[in-house]
């Protein structure tokens, strides 16, 4: 009897400890730095039950506008166009960042970084440079010199934004290929990343075109792997593709805003809920909104809610790991807004919490 009670007590203590650990999760925020403003990357502990957050540390690094991480290290692009553009690596010990090393991205204005092969390589998208850079990374997060580099020469119909290639992001697909969005050319390039001796190399696989003038920026894949969503920065459209034997076939184009909207779009980011039932996206410029879409069984989208971002310049957004909250980084008004999310309906409400921070642009957990 005593042994049984002891086992039950240990089980209860273990369950309580697991719950406490799951309740508080590390969160990292990248910013645009400035004199008198933010200094770099900010680390928080976010409470997935209450929506509260506590600042743990900050590390100084110039304009870390996009972040990616493993359990052991974090990488950030330092978005600059003055010759100082780079990718930086930081060790993660007890969720505290310690600088490891930095290397040049060669192309100007690096705006996105992807980690692949369990963190053994990084792919950097250079926006103004119109290029893609590939690096090997060791198990401690040390970045080696560049393994491969691709520069793109494209253009499209927008006379201001599409006079040349602008590589905006590279996302990992369900097939383990990387999908590269060229805002300037209205193209999505698909590459395999293969090991050639001791180095990684890009291997061309597929070319996907989107509607002219759309300006593809970010991509999200449905958890089932059969549907791809391409966010168009210039038009505020989301283009839906379904996977077929011969590649990806466009099946829908839906706008993030209602038909009554008049103004300029600045679509920025999109994420899918953990259950695969809802898609969330942000729109800047004259909109400053968050859109909520229901995802139907065939992968198509239906607009369910359009809410104010409660700030200006909603850049990146992210869902907490448990899906209870959606956080939106309002770059221009210097704060992250915490929205509560109804798991059944997908709808958002203002949770009332704000994280005040100069020019937040990227949120990861």
CATH class descriptor name of the domain at 61-209: Mainly Beta
The separation of the N and C termini measures 43 Å
By CATH, the topology of the domain at 61-209 is Methylamine Dehydrogenase, Chain H
**DSSP helix fraction:** under 10%
CATH architecture of the domain at 61-209: 7 Propeller
Q: β content, as a range?
A: over 45%
Write down the secondary-structure element order: HEEEEEEEEEEEEEEEEEEEEEEEEEEEE
Secondary structure tally, helices: 1
Note the main sheet. 4 strands, antiparallel
Structural class estimated from helices and strands: mainly beta
The total beta strand count reads 28
At the fourth level of CATH, the homologous superfamily of the domain at 61-209 is YVTN repeat-like/Quinoprotein amine dehydrogenase
Walk across the major sheet and give the strand order: 3-2-1-28
Mean pLDDT: 94
Describe the structure.
The protein has a 4-stranded antiparallel beta sheet with strand order 3-2-1-28. The chain has one helix at residues 2-23, and strands at residues 24-31, 40-47, 53-60, 64-69, 73-78, 86-93, 96-104, 110-116, 121-126, 131-137, 143-151, 167-172, 178-182, 187-196, 199-209, 216-221, 227-232, 237-244, 247-255, 267-272, 278-283, 289-295, 301-308, 314-319, 325-330, 335-341, 348-356, 360-364. A hairpin with a 4-residue loop joins strand 8 (110-116) and strand 9. The protein has 1 helix and 28 strands. The model is unreliable at 2-19 (pLDDT under 50). It is mainly β.
């Amino acid at each position: 009897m005593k042994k049984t009670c002891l086992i039950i007590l240990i089980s209860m203590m273990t369950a309580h400890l697991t719950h406490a650990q799951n309740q508080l999760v590390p969160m990292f925020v990248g910013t645009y730095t400035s004199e008198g403003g933010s200094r770099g990357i900010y680390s928080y502990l976010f409470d997935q039950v209450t929506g509260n957050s506590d600042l743990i540390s900050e590390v100084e690094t110039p304009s870390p506008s996009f972040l990616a991480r493993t359990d052991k290290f974090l990488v950030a692009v330092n978005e600059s166009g003055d010759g100082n553009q780079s990718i930086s690596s930081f060790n993660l010990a007890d969720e505290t960042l310690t600088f490891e090393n930095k290397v040049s991205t060669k192309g100007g204005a690096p705006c996105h970084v992807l980690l692949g092969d369990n963190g053994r390589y990084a792919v950097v998208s250079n926006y103004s440079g119109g290029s893609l850079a590939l690096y090997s990374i060791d198990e401690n997060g040390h970045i080696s010199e560049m393994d491969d580099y691709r520069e793109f020469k494209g253009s499209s119909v927008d006379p201001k934004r599409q006079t040349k290639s602008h590589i905006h992001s590279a996302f990992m697909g369900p097939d383990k290929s990387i999908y590269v969005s060229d805002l300037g050319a209205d193209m999505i390039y698909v590459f395999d990343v293969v090991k050639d001796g001791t180095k990684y190399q890009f291997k061309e696989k597929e070319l996907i075109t989107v509607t002219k003038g759309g300006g593809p920026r970010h991509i999200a894949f449905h958890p089932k792997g059969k549907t791809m969503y391409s966010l168009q920065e210039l038009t505020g459209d989301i283009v839906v593709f379904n996977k077929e034997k011969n590649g990806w076939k466009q099946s829908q184009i839906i706008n993030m805003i209602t038909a009554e909207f008049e103004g300029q779009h600045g679509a920025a980011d999109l994420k899918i809920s953990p259950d695969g039932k809802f898609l969330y996206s942000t729109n800047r410029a004259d909109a400053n909104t968050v859109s909520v879409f229901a995802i139907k069984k065939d992968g198509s989208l239906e607009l369910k809610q359009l809410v104010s971002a409660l700030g200006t310049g909603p850049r990146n957004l992210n869902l907490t790991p448990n899906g209870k909250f959606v956080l939106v980084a309002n770059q221009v008004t210097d704060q992250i807004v915490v929205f509560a999310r109804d798991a059944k309906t997908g709808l958002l409400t203002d949770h009332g919490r704000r994280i005040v921070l100069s020019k937040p642009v990227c949120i990861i957990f």
